[in-house]
Amino acid sequence: MDGYRVAVVGATGAVGTRMIQMLEETSLPIDSIKYLASKRSAGQVLKFKGQDVTVEETTPDSFENVDLALFSAGGGVSKKFAPEAIKRGAVVVDNTSAFRMDPDVPLVVPEVNEQALYEHKGLIANPNCSTIQMVVALEPIRKNYGLKKVVVTTMQAVSGAGNLAIQELKDETQAYLDGEEMQAGILPASGDKKHYPIAFNPLPQIDVFEDTGYTHEEWKMIHETKKIMSDQDIQVTATCVRVPVVVSHSESVWFEIESHDASVKKIQNILSDAPGVVLQDDPEHQIYPQAINATGKKDTFVGRVRADLEQNNAFQLWVVSDNLLKGAAWNSVQIAEKLHELDLLRVPK
Amino acid sequence: MDGYRVAVVGATGAVGTRMIQMLEETSLPIDSIKYLASKRSAGQVLKFKGQDVTVEETTPDSFENVDLALFSAGGGVSKKFAPEAIKRGAVVVDNTSAFRMDPDVPLVVPEVNEQALYEHKGLIANPNCSTIQMVVALEPIRKNYGLKKVVVTTMQAVSGAGNLAIQELKDETQAYLDGEEMQAGILPASGDKKHYPIAFNPLPQIDVFEDTGYTHEEWKMIHETKKIMSDQDIQVTATCVRVPVVVSHSESVWFEIESHDASVKKIQNILSDAPGVVLQDDPEHQIYPQAINATGKKDTFVGRVRADLEQNNAFQLWVVSDNLLKGAAWNSVQIAEKLHELDLLRVPK
Fold this sequence. Notes:
The structure is a homodimer of 349-residue chains.
Chain A: E1 4-9, H1 14-25, E2 30-37, E3 45-48, E4 51-54, E5 56-57, E6 68-71, H2 75-87, E7 91-94, H3 110-113, E8 123-125, H4 129-145, E9 147-156, H5 163-177, H6 216-228, E10 235-242, E11 249-257, H7 264-272, E12 277-279, H8 291-294, E13 300-307, E14 314-321, H9 325-341
Parallel strand pairs in A: 1-2, 1-6, 2-5, 6-7, 7-8, 9-10, 12-13
Antiparallel strand pairs in A: 3-4, 9-11, 11-14, 13-14
Helix pairs in contact in A: 1-9, 4-6, 4-9
């Protein structure tokens, strides 16, 4: 075998199409590729490096002769088919929330906890988009200064809710500009009872509400951060907001560190050397990360590094990244690349 | 005299037109009204309660026989003409930042510090829009539990930057939908060097940058909050973000209180009785404040009240209000109503 036999589950979705793009660009050796999706999408023809690939309906047997399966077709699909894939010898990188908090499943952002890959039992979970870019920015700071507490407010793009949500934003926006009524059918959460317009209207709900008053998206940011950083004592609290943006999440992050010896300059230096981070921080010349500039790029962009002027161990950041790439497709393919590099791209016996 | 002779300075602007609307609805007795603006806007004809009023160019003599002058035409205009108005016997309510931090000028949100009106010397400053709605929500909590620290992230509507910024958002949005290039000429700050698209792109800059790395808008939230609440020890830090929204600011507010005896339920009860606040907080039924619902209303809408799950004296709120009404025009007219009620609508000898 020269390369891997790869399957993309959810190939027609907003993340799936980016997974294909990331696989076209990867250094990972690929022998063959298979696009899987629901029955509804089967028969569609997509490209891979210029060649036609017909989308097939996902069945257990789809995973025969597959070495690597990238899943991004919803938690239900992952729960049903990931075990079938692993049983047939495929390593699964799952972009859904189905297995993220399973103690037997590594939850990996390569820049942060690559070493967790050694523990995999056939399945590695890709964290939530909003968590990934935050931990990429905070990990180098945590390593140097310790991390006590994080208060984050996100401004998340609608593409995190899929292609239909992108279309909904565009349709509502055009209706608003034309003075017509906006029709909401998907956002804030397709599975919830009520739907509200997102055009020109930030919605402080992503995913459904928990009993605590937090949404499940906020819950994910809190608990995934602790798991990825392997530290249950880091306090994290979050407000997750959907905003009228197509691609790339922006995050306002306040954080408290253990050390009292940090400074804006030192943190900027740490970030400019950090893996996966691009520091864009020059207020004098109005340089700071923006969603439209981050879109299509694999990096996490960090700027507006500044001190809490009244607490000498607290700072703030503005963190922007393409939610479909580093937040999903790229992080998944990057995990596969790391597995290959560490000779872990096989289901352990 | 049966009523007051009122002048609106900046009558044709985004805030000015709302000031006129608020004056049409006010219980304040009004004998006559005068619309003032720049030379460029002079000659336009606007309505007041169905009657035509011709906009006049602002000159020092415009304020002869004026009892109350509402200013919202930029700091430069206020600096030049507010002293002329006061000299001629008018009480000035100024919506610009020109005099807000002057120790001799009360900075007033009637729900919070009405008593400061007794100290006025002819001029009362109206705080910054993003500050007003935050202090309306936090003051009742501060009164009950003490307030130690606030970490706020705003999502501010473009109307805060005026009518031209609204048009810029709409033009850019249409260009984006049509697949054309977006042309930015005003935002993030008309007076700054570079301009970036706001359509589908949150911009973490409102007003210009200070040496600390904070923008002047963030500086305002920090220092105006301390002044309005008469407590320099309240720690406040802010990230102010312009978002593609036409009207109404949304704010994610994390705060720490002195007391360890508060609860979500108690805070909800306090907020539901608080002046100027409408509690919209029922996650189970997806009830929370939204910009499109707050627009055109005078109240501050508060929801998503929840506990910081790892710090028992910290909580979070989602606060939404019409930035042109409570954030500007309504707060100014409300100040005038209070001055009248307290028999203070005259320049002290």
